[in-house]
Design goal:
Layout: E1 19-20, E2 23-24, E3 48-53, H1 57-69, E4 73-80, H2 83-97, E5 108-110, H3 114-119, E6 125-128, H4 135-144, E7 148-151, H5 159-175, E8 179-181, H6 189-199, E9 206-215, H7 229-235, H8 241-244, H9 247-250, H10 253-262, E10 270-276, E11 291-297, E12 303-310, E13 317-324, E14 327-332, E15 336-341, E16 345-347, H11 355-369, H12 376-395, E17 399-400, H13 401-405
Parallel strand pairs: 3-4, 3-6, 4-5, 6-7, 7-8, 9-12
Antiparallel strand pairs: 1-2, 9-13, 10-11, 10-17, 11-12, 13-14, 14-15, 15-16
Helix pairs in contact: 1-2, 1-11, 4-5, 5-12, 10-12
Length: 438
């Protein structure tokens, strides 16, 4: 699900910026030469069949953007656990994309196994936009099936899931498959330019990074009489950590991804923090927190700080401040992008783009060119930063990177228990000092 509730850039941008050995490549959309579709040997003019797995608002938007990215794409299969959600998405996509939608009744799949039916339907590319608790298994199945993938963020809700995603990403490279992440800020022109300067050393070695993601309340769906416990939790998936990972994983992880980007995607060595529920205390909010504050420490002594809350009637902030040995960078998302060093000052004044569209443009360009693009490692590690932050807040303990990434804690029921009549008991709300690290 895309993060639109508290961003000034809900309708703009995406990424393909990777730092290598201190050098940064910065640009707008990458233009690839004409070529051959690598996985299936299709020509430049051949149709690419797209399948949508997860038909909420983010899935609907991603499908439209995928169809706009390449004139020879068609949507041929859709899957969701809820029929009403699938039909709503279908109607909206048809309104915008018209005859690029070729989904007949037999290719509308409903149920917990709908993802596999979409993969088996003959699609070339899949869009994974379900709640993130399902992402590791869906991604693994997609790569096993030889599909190119757009994978929304976050990519997991626990460390075993992250490890599974890392394996899938490695497999995608071996198979020559493109894997593009939903960490949309990395596809935004202004951020690419700004982080390019940071990574090229214009402010010197980084000492501290401070990120804020503060906002208000989100949606909630009132329980209906015929809903089972599983149905209720699935309809309100955001508030259950086995489905969302908690809001620091589902939404605020964008800020942690920016922190990681500035550090060249080098992982910290240790984390400590706090969090809890002060305002969002009603049982309808499931078992997630409403605020977190976390400190990450890097091997070189740099510190990364992240503060986030979702509380009604509070001030909003979405910012990144980077302090280096020779200057600083300041990002107020959607408004301000500036870099200051001892001898000069720079502010982004270039062309703005729709980051959501750019990521699909670059995905399909990479497929057509036969030059696969793979965001797998950084999308897994940025997700893990959110999971790690949740771990230290839930337990109240200082936890190392090695402990966090090797955690054995698995959230949610087993795959074989996915059924509407399965009464999955919500784990208790974590109490620091009592909740145990596993």
């Amino acid at each position: 699900m895309a993060d639109k509730s508290n961003s000034n850039e809900a309708d703009s941008g995406r990424r393909t910026f990777i730092k290598k050995s201190g050098m940064a490549l910065v640009g707008t959309s990458i233009v690839y030469p004409s070529g051959v579709f690598s996985a299936s040997g299709l020509s430049q003019d051949s149709k690419l069949k797209v399948g949508l797995i997860g038909c909420g608002g983010r899935g609907t938007g991603a499908a439209v953007q995928a169809l706009q990215a390449d004139p020879n794409t068609v949507l041929t299969a859709m899957g969701d656990v809820f029929e009403d959600r699938l039909e709503t998405a279908y109607s909206e996509i048809v309104k915008i994309s018209g005859n690029q939608v070729k989904v007949n009744k037999t290719q509308k799949y409903i149920g917990f196994d709908a993802y596999q039916k979409v993969l088996d339907s003959g699609v070339d590319v899949v869009l994974l936009t379900t709640p993130p608790g399902f992402r590791p298994d869906h991604l693994t199945a997609a790569i096993n099936a030889g599909k190119h993938v757009f994978c929304e963020k976050p990519v997991a809700v626990d460390a075993p899931g992250v490890r599974k995603v890392l394996e899938a990403a490695k497999m995608a490279k071996e198979k020559g498959l493109s894997l593009v992440s939903g960490f949309c800020f990395r596809y935004d022109n202004a951020k690419r330019a700004t982080f390019g300067k940071i990574l090229n050393g214009e402010i010197g070695d980084i000492n501290t990074i401070t990120t804020f993601r503060n906002g208000g309340e989100l949606w909630y769906k009132e329980r209906e009489l015929d809903w089972s416990q599983m149905t209720y939790q699935m309809r309100n998936w955001y508030y259950y950590n086995w489905l969302s990972g908690d809001f620091i994983v589902e939404m605020a992880v964008h800020s942690l991804d920016l922190m990681s980007w500035a550090m060249g995607d080098v992982m910290p060595i240790s984390a400590v923090g706090t969090g809890g529920r002060q305002a969002r205390t009603h049982e309808r909010y499931g078992n997630i927190y409403d605020h977190f504050a976390v400190e990450f420490e890097y091997a070189n002594g740099a510190k990364g700080y992240h503060f986030t809350r979702q509380q009604a009637e509070t001030s909003h902030r979405n910012s990144v401040d980077v302090i280096g040995a020779h200057g600083s960078a300041k990002i107020n998302v959607g408004r301000q992008y500036e870099v200051k060093s001892h001898d000069k000052s720079w502010e982004f004044e270039g062309e703005r783009n729709n980051m959501y569209q750019t990521e699909h443009d670059e995905l399909f360009a990479s497929i057509r060119s036969g030059k696969p693009h793979n965001d797998g490692e950084y999308m897994a590690h940025s997700t893990m930063l959110g999971i790690w932050a949740r771990m230290v807040a839930y337990t109240g303990q200082t936890i190392s990177w090695e402990q966090a990434i090797n955690s054995k804690e698995v959230l949610g029921p087993k795959n074989e228990d996915y059924a509407w009549d399965y009464d999955y008991a919500m784990p208790p709300i974590a109490v620091p000092g009592k909740a145990k690290f596993i």
